[in-house]
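Box 3.1 — From sequence to structure: [citrate (Pro-3S)-lyase] ligase
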Amino acid sequence: MGQWVRFSEFDVTNERRVQKVKDFLDKNALELSDDVELFVTASEEGEMVACGGISGKILKCVAVTPRLRGQRFVLKVIDELLEAAKRRGQKELFLFSAPKNQAYFESHGFRLIESSGDEVILMENSDNLAQFKEGLRQKCVDGKNIGSVVLCDSPLQERETALINQALGQCDWLHVFVVCQEGTHSPARTEALRQSLASFSRISVHENSEYLISKATFPTYFIKDQDHINALHGELDLKIFKRHIAPALGITHRFIGCESDVNEAYNALMKELLPQVWEDAPPVCVVSLG
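Predicted structure (token representation):
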């Protein structure tokens, strides 16, 4: 590496420079996520040698040219991204990466949340997960059978109403988790759904959280095959639910409808992963209703 590398910052409106980032990622067998709002690039003698992006609270599209890998240069890129995020008032961040980079990011203040196979890790640079779980524990309700369902923040449909009624018939308490429709949080939609759930007894409603991983936030830029992306997304989402969310609330059952919004592969993965006993997580029974 030469004596100087110049970093620069620009947003998604600079189409010419965004195209250069896309080309650089292509050369490094990566893809540009279309939700990145801010970019940081590093150039040496006019040649792009690294890049990274920020999408909301998530660091994405971090790449370093092959000749600079192994020199911890990726940490310099992360430094620049963190500074860019700080200037925007965003101090709490998440990142997805390959497991081989975990030690790099841990040395930079990030903590592992969960991994998906040996291909994807999710990390954060705050203790928000611990705070999130403590908040859930305060909403824990005693009971032998504690259920859970996941709903999109859209108007309650007849089949969702039937699912909730059937679930309540089999458990002492039901935790309803609301996830963003297509990854975009709408307080108005969430409040409308909450109002429609007000007529039910023995339920708690939990609004959207960063720890309910949406397909909109899951990384696609370093994985090419869409079916494989879906499988890794599902595994990561379910492991977080299994290890962190379910134990905090004492959840014993997760209910799904026969016409659930989630696809067949996700349902199959749920049935495989949730009943397993890990050292730090009790089993969760998956119940299909319809």
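Summary of the box: Residues 157 and 163 are 10 Å apart (CA to CA).
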